[in-house]
Amino acid sequence: MKIEVLGTGCKKCIELEMIVKQAIAKSGKFVQLEKVEDIMKIMEYQVVSTPGLVINGEVVSTGKVLSVDEVLAYITK
Amino acid sequence: MWQSTVDYLTLDLLGLGGHLGASINFFIYDTIKIWFLLISIIFVVSYLRTHFNTEYVRAHLQGKSELYGNVLAALFGIITPFCSCSAIPLFLGFIQARIPIGVTFSFLISSPMNNEIAIALLFGLFGWKVTAIYIGFGLVVAIVGGFVIGKLGMEKYVLMDVKPMEGELEEVKISLTMKERAKEAYEYTADIFKQIYLYVLIGVGVGAIIHGYIPATFIAQYAGADNPFAVLVAVIMGIPMYSNAAGVMPLVEVLTQKGMLLGTALSFMMAVTALSLPEAMILKKILHTKLIAIFFGIVGFGIICIGYLFNFIL
């Protein structure tokens, strides 16, 4: 599984990255996490409000900081 | 009813009269009233906005004619959230979708100006009439400002090369149940309230001191009808205050009670929300300084005109 956090370095993006890390630890799964800061790559995902969350190449959330449980639900789904 | 409860508490129970009594009475009354209104209005707005997001707006602005696009973008600006940290992806994403630059600016002007905190505070402090005037004229500035920027041919001042996409964007669907929307709205409201309740407290506190101690003639002298530069000064002072809108607005209410003209107050509040230095710094990464200066210049000019217009009419 591969998770990408899309964000150009704003406060919310950093928050989301921390939350995703916690969720991964909680799930106990092997997950590849990548922080995407390149704006051109972010736009390729058609995301215009950061932070964005991408799981296995699919955008699941934009423009908000999810809770640990919400991210966990995406990981274990 | 709330006023009489507070009166009873400060006058009868604590026996506070005079300047101190007036200040404390005002402080308790205003703080609780504004907190209550902030929570309820932010909740309603954030519930409604779970139906929209920036991706949805982009898909709907794509391929619209210029003037219609400006109007639509300004209206979308009322309901969609805006965080200056997303200014860059938003700007470039709109270009990618071949949305004219003027339409993007209409959105960029309207969205922070009509943010839910400003609207809730205005409603709580000044009532629905002033709120409606603020939103109405805010939309005019956003539409006309964006339209003018669009006509100036500013595309060459966008520093990043974005490849326009082919074809149309897919329709953005947001499927949430009512419970999920309510939960999201609740979390958002709690989050915002945590960020601003202290500013409101401080703003109302300073306002309460002015309310009780500083005579009206003092303020009228500097910000009233006698000072022809009041609007201009108010707009310039408003630019660095973006993050403190929650603390500034209660102060403005007190100042208007003490003789500051409403037009001056409106200009000041619009400058606080629409012209933000942090946003300018972020946009500087992708826009030439010249374009940012023109953006600030046009919006500032529009806001100043509104201020003078109101001071003249009222």
Descriptive overview:
Chain A is an alpha+beta fold. Chain A has a single domain (2-76), classed as Glutaredoxin (3-Layer(aba) Sandwich). Chain A is built from three helices and four strands. Chain A has a four-stranded mixed sheet with strand order 2-1-3-4. In chain A, strand 3 (52-55) and strand 4 (58-62) form a beta hairpin. In chain A, helix 1 crosses helix 3. With 314 residues, chain B is an all-alpha fold. Chain B is 75% helix and 0% strand. In chain B, helix 1 packs antiparallel against helix 2 and helix 6 (101-113) packs across helix 13. The radius of gyration of chain B is 21 Å and the shape is globular. The mean pLDDT of chain B is 85. Chains A and B meet through helix 1 and helix 2 of A and helix 3 and helix 5 of B.
Task: Give keywords.
heterodimer, A: 77 residues, alpha+beta, Glutaredoxin, 4-stranded mixed beta sheet, 4 strands, 42% helix, B: 314 residues, mainly alpha, 15 helices, 75% helix, 0% strand, globular
| CATH architectural designation of chain A | 3-Layer(aba) Sandwich
Low-confidence stretches of chain A: none
The computed structural class of chain A is alpha+beta
Cα distance spanning the termini of chain A: 11 Å
Helical segment tally of chain B? 15
Query: What percent of the residues of chain A sit in helical stretches (DSSP H or I)?
Result: 40-55%
Helix residue percentage of chain B: over 70%
Q: Say which CATH homologous superfamily of chain A is assigned.
A: Glutaredoxin
Cα radius of gyration of chain A in angstroms: 11 Å
Spell the H/E element sequence of chain B: HHHHHHHHHHHHHHH
Widest sheet: strand ordering of chain A: 2-1-3-4
Shape of chain B: globular
Number of domains of chain A: 1
Mean pLDDT of chain B: 85
Strand content of chain B: under 5%
Largest sheet of chain A, in brief, is:
4 strands, mixed
